[in-house]
Amino acid sequence: NWVAVNVDRDHYLPAAVDKIDSLSRLALKGLKLSPAFAPAVRDYTVAAPQGATTVTVTAIPTSSRSTVTINGKPATAGKSHAAGVGSALKIAVKSPDRAQTSVYTVTFERR
Question: How far is CA 1 from CA 4, 12, 17, 37, 95, in A?
């Protein structure tokens, strides 16, 4: 069995290790998320240039044992992934015990 003890009030695990289904980082190369990324915020908008067809996404789950998909395709944590620019981008994070899933949504607005 594994036990975690939080000793830092400013930086702590949001749940038991096997229940963590969040991201610690989400970035789109060359684009700015609005609002700025925060693990508890699930909905973002991005101003995408006219004519853009793909975007490079990097997603890092809070737990290294969580799994991530980008628009339904498996994604390696911390690696850049190309995704199509449509109306929205869906990043799903499944907890290590596979019981919980959080979905982050990035909606594209054309400039």
Answer: 10, 20, 11, 33, 17
Q: Model-level pTM?
A: 0.85
Rounded CA-CA distance 81/99 in Å is 25
- Eight-class DSSP state of 64: T
**Residue whose pair of structure tokens reads 């997603």 in the numeric block:** 59
Quick check: 20 and 96 in contact, CB under 8 A?
Answer: yes
Residue-wise pLDDT for 81-103, tens only, equals 999 888 899 999 999 999 999 99
Which residues are registered as beta bridge partners of 106? 44, 89
CA–CA–CA angle 56, 61, 66 (5° rounding): 120
Least trusted range by pLDDT, from 6-10, 13-17, 80-84: 6-10
Beta-bridge partners for 109: 47
